[in-house]
Design goal:
Layout (H helix, E strand, L loop, with lengths): L7 H4 L6 H6 L4 E3 L5 E3 L4 E5 L3 E7 L8 E6 L2 E15 L4 E15 L4 E11 L2 E8 L14
Antiparallel strand pairs: 1-2, 3-4, 4-9, 5-6, 6-7, 8-9
């Protein structure tokens, strides 16, 4: 006896995805007829006193699956993973293949020190610390509203 009947489409957000509209392409992969899985991981960014802290949720990935680079003043986090599974028996054989990839790019502010970046992977969470430049003075100007 089932108390609740639901499927993945019941919990999917009902609003359009802004990222999909901006990029002009879908950011989900079909798993079956009625299921979709997002391929872009969730990210949290904190502006702390001495560093910018980036946390990326990457369940199922290890540190060898993740690539972190700095390109043209951008922090680039990416991964590409393939798997193959094969089972054989007397009368049958089953092969499964899988592939997943993502890339996230973040424009680094001028106060970020690109030479002082640390990364750590623990329990499916990638933590990156980008140190701030010592003695950097932010150029701010307040604009009066008329």
């Amino acid at each position: 006896m089932k108390l609740f009947k639901w499927n993945i489409s019941d919990i999917k957000p009902k609003f359009p995805n802004i990222v999909e509209k901006f990029l002009g392409k879908k950011i989900t992969d079909k798993v079956s007829n009625d299921q979709e899985v997002s391929v872009i991981p969730s990210v949290n960014i904190a502006d702390e006193e001495k560093a910018f802290e980036v946390s990326v949720a990457l369940p199922g990935l290890s540190k060898k699956d993740v690539k972190i680079e700095v390109q043209n003043n951008c922090l680039v986090i990416s991964s590409e993973k393939q798997y193959k599974k094969e089972e054989k028996n007397k009368n049958w054989m089953r092969r499964e293949y899988g592939y997943a990839s993502f890339q996230r790019m973040f424009q680094m502010p001028e106060s970020a020190d690109q030479d002082k970046i640390q990364a750590e992977m623990k329990n499916g969470v990638l933590s990156i610390k980008v140190a701030k430049k010592a003695g950097y003075i932010e150029n701010k100007k307040q604009i009066a509203v008329e």
